Amino acid sequence: MGAITLGEMQANGPQELCAATFPQKLRLLVLGPHPDDFDAVAVTLRLLADNGNPIQVGVVRTGSGVLDTYRSGLTPEKKADIREREQCDSLRFFGLPDASVTFLSLDNDDDEGQLCETPKNLAALTTFLNVHAPDILFIPHGNDTNSAHRALYAMVQKIAQESSRPLTLLLIRDPKTVAMRTDLYVPFGQEQADWKAKLLRFHDTQHQRNLATRKYGFDDRILEGNRQIARSLSLAAPYAEAFEREVYSA
Question: pLDDT for 190-224, tens place per residue?
Fold first, then answer.
């Protein structure tokens, strides 16, 4: 059984994702253009880690989202170092070994430090995906106000279309997603939400930026999105993470 399993699922409307959907041998890769993209769907990933599915993580090095006022003398490289340490700390709290994460030095734009779509980046991502050969790839949704989310999706889609291996994409809904179809969701309660909030607060640069610019924390921003997902699906659980599925056959 391979990644096509998810593509063969038939459902009238959104379907709850459960560990039984994922045989243990399925290899999972989470690919994020920012540190913290992993954490946005941490409850789902914890479910699958507990199921025994091997998880690898690829994170683009970037200092985006770090206010100049966060600390004195911050260069773009120092900002990227801080965000890398935050991601390592959150993944250790999650329970993944350091060897499970790769930080990718890709080209970002000069103004915002966001991943951009270039032939060089496309080649590097192709190599990275060929090395890890995932069955399931989690990435942010391409219909998103964040340019790095759009760029990553566009490049991954090209890679998947040309790949000789089947690949299922699970596209993540986050607060900047404009619109998407919900194919799969994972409901969760307050205890899991409290755990996820603690995980998110390891990203202190993002937490402080949200407090300064939005007057509420990074954890509250993500969890409010999870509340909205649960309400939109009329779930009994107060929170949910949601995904759109794209399946590419070899």
Answer: 999 999 999 999 999 999 999 999 999 999 999 99
To the question of pTM greater than 0.85 for the whole model, the response is yes
- Candidates 156, 118, 145; CA nearest to 31 is 156
Distance between CA atoms of 146 and 143, rounded to whole angstroms? 9
Q: What is the residue type of 115?
A: L
Rounded mean pLDDT, 145-165: 96
pLDDT at 102 over 90: yes
Tokens 């202190």, residue located: 204
pLDDT tens by residue, 129-145: 999 999 999 999 999 99
Q: Two tokens at 173?
A: 């809904």
- In 71-203, which ranges are continuous DSSP H helix? 76-94, 119-132, 147-162, 190-200
Q: Locate the domains of the chain by residue range.
A: 4-186
**By three-state DSSP, how is residue 238 classified?**
coil
Distance CA 15, CA 107 (A): 37
Residue 128 CA to residue 122 CA, distance in Å, equals 10
Does residue 206 contact residue 218 with C-beta atoms inside 8 Å? Answer: yes
**Domain at 4-186: CATH code:** 3.40.50.10320
Distance, first Cα to last Cα, the chain = 14
Strand partners, 140: 172
Quick one: DSSP state of residue 98? G
Residues in the chain: 250
Average pLDDT over residues 234-241: 98
